[in-house]
Amino acid sequence: MADLFSDAASQRASDVAPLAQRLRPSTLDEFVGQAHMLGAGSVLRTAIAEDRVRSSIFYGPPGSGKTTLARIVAASTGAAFEELSAVSATVKDVREVLARARERLGTTGRRTILFLDEIHRFNKAQQDALLPAVEEGLVTLIGATTENPYYEVNSALLSRSQVYELESLSPEDLATVVRRGLDEVGAHASPEIVEQIVRRAGGDARSALNIVELAAETAAGEITEQSVDDAARKHPIVYDKNSDAHYDFTSAFIKSMRGSDPQAAVFYLAAMLEGGEDARFVARRMIVLASEDIGNADPRALVVAVAAAQAVEHVGLPEARLNLAQAAIYLARAPKSNASYLAIKAATRDVQERGNFQPPQSLRDGSYYGRRLGHGEGYVYPHDDPSGFDADYLPDELKGTTYYTPSGNGEEEAE
Question: Domain range for residue 296?
Answer without folding.
Answer: 244-333
